[in-house]
Amino acid sequence: MTTWVMLLLFPQAQVLDLPVATSNPYTAGADLEQGKRLYGGRCAGCHGPAGNGGKGANLATPSLSRAQTDIGLYTVIRYGLLETEMPPSLGVEQYGTVLVFNYLHRPLMPAIVAAVEPGGVLIYETFTTGQAARGRPTSPAHLLRDGELPAIVAPLVVRRAREGDIDGALISSIVAERR
After folding, report:
1. DSSP H helical segments within the chain, as ranges?
2. I need a labelling partner for 101 at 20 to 30 A (CA). Which of 92, 125, 153, 160 fits?
3. Which residues are within 8 A (CB) of 53 and not within 5 positions of it... i.e. 6 or more apart?
4. Is the entire prediction scored with pTM above 0.90?
5. Burial class (CB in 10 A: 0-12, 13-18, 19+), 38
6. Is residue 170 helix, strand or coil?
7. Whole-number Å distance between alpha carbons of 27 and 136
């Protein structure tokens, strides 16, 4: 379901549609000031007050090995780095509707759940492990185990769920609400 459809269904809701990362949307002067404040509170403990490193990588270099472009840096900050202590961050906002389709990055799940505002809904759908026998995706890291989705969206309240062969794909879907 596209963001515009959700806006028609829930016109009052602010919608987060994942994964959408084709450009860094935070480039205005006010965004940069907010970024400085967020860095001081969330990042400086590992990367140092001036970004010179410590527990985390040295960010005060002309080029970062894992984020060589602006969109690369935005993606690392937003989705974190697997097998490191770099957590994902969806920012400080909460949304009335959070949409996730055909995407699974388990380390991001707590941030996705936290992004749902009180009274808001999460609509999530992606492939299950059985899909690997039918084609892509095939990596277990990107496939839900049978019955896994309700557990990883807790403490949201499941309003509707389905799992199985749907339109030729093995998927799990859920609509969950934050009370």
Report:
1. 3-9, 29-38, 44-47, 70-79, 109-114, 149-152
2. 92
3. 47, 59, 60
4. no
5. middle
6. strand
7. 35
Q: What is the spatial distance between Cα 9 and Cα 99, in angstroms, rounded to a whole number?
A: 13
Cα dihedral value 119, 110, 14, 22, nearest 10: -160
- Residue 61 burial (10 A CB sphere; 0-12, 13-18, 19+): exposed
- Calculate the alpha carbon distances from 141 to 69, 79, 82, 145 in Å: 26, 15, 11, 10
- Give all domains of the chain, ordered by start, each with its CATH number: 3-17+91-177 (3.40.50.150), 29-79 (no CATH)
Average pLDDT along the chain, 179 residues, taken 10 residues at a time: 49 60 81 82 85 87 83 79 73 82 86 90 95 92 94 96 95 95
| Contact call for residues 153 and 122 (beta carbons, < 8 A) | yes
Length of the chain: 179
Q: Measuring CA to CA, which residue among 99, 103, 79 is closest to residue 4?
A: 99
**From the CB of residue 40, how many other CB atoms can be counted at a distance below 10 Å?**
11
